[in-house]
Write a structure and sequence with these properties.
By secondary structure, the chain is α/β, with parallel strands linked by helices. It has 13 helices and 13 strands. Strand 3 and strand 4 form a beta hairpin. Bound molecules: ligand IDC.
Length: 417
Amino acid sequence: MTTAALTLTACDNAKQPQQSNGELDVNASVTSFGTIDSASANVEILPTPTYPKGSPVDQWGKLKVDTNAAGVRCLCSADGKPVQLRGMSSHGLQWKGAANVTEANMAALRKDWNANIFRIAIYVDEEGGYAYNSNHRDVYVDGLVKWTAAQGMYLLIDWHVLSPGNPMSALYRKHPRTGKDLAADFFTYCARRYQNQKHILYELCNEPNGLNFENEKYNDNGPKYWNPRVTWLEHIKPHCEQMLKIIRSYDKDVVCICGTPHWSQRPQDVIGHEPVDEKGQAYNNLMYTFHFYAASHNDGRHDETAVKFWDIDFMKIFKNGCDTIPCLLKTLPIFVTEWGTTDASGWTNFRPDLSDMWMDIFNGNNDGKQVVSWCNWSFSSDGGVCAALKWDDGNMQPFDKSILTESGKYIFDQLHK
Ligand code: IDC
């Protein structure tokens, strides 16, 4: 019934999750490839669309990682010029996110908001996510590929690893409901089906998380899904390399973005350890993500927020670097695939002032002169004051600015700068 598209080899010393007392150890890693639907491996390949004349995709073509005038790697157009993508991320499709993921709204985002990218967040196991709803892929991702193409805007397809935080957990790689390798199957389907689409980018895992960094300020009493040790070398890099093996077998140069440790807040862990193929060759067209929520992740100020990162200066290492970490924007190609104007809970502390400071850095005021692309969380009314919309209606045309929240207005203005 199922078949693997590639010869996907199992790792000998694979530590498979144990099911003792009937409970799945969601923190253990599944290191071998599992089953992939033959329907995914044989899915019909979509023909190349015609992008509207003068649209972002028409002008820039299939993006790649190249260097800017300072010799720093960054996101570039097909002809090697640095570009900046800016737009919105969907919310979870299992919640209110789906209401806004429509053809008309992609037109509004392109024409009225001036966005040139949309990000679709595919939550996997949370509360009726993709593991329980294949229409998240077959209806929404597939629809968006066509709707964004019709607008000539880019689409970032995000495998929204969040709970559990280990991208190699059985809940992604050997799901208890079907036994399927959901991650391998998802990327097989997408990479094969969309190989001729110039406007697609992949985010290989949203926010791997686990309490694993030095000077840890948390204890380990968090939710059981918080793996205490989810690291770049042990979990994230191997996950990315496995997914790249699949993706690159169909689409040899599509830009892929790797999640980084601790809710994608530590691209520095990648330095010197970028993903390689089986011959040990570095993959090209790879980027690394950094996520920030302005009130929580900033210059380390002592402000009262629901989620605090006091004393951690996140801004400095992006601007100039520090004694131990080189300027990240000089060292790695970075894509901020998700950020919020509030604290990391999403619910409180809208901070346009701190958002402005980040926008300044990402508009090129950094030692690498790297201009950074971003998607804002989220194109929804859900999840607190970081939401851009006051309501979810499913059709925002003609577009009316009065549906925007304070955060939505801030982003709308940024997109017009
Ligand atoms: C939040 C949603 C919220 C949902 C929660 C589930 O807004 O409605 O209940 O996820 O955990 C992230 C994540 C993103 C979070 C967002 C806000 O990538 O999934 O969305 N956030 O908390 N990282 C930092 C903040």
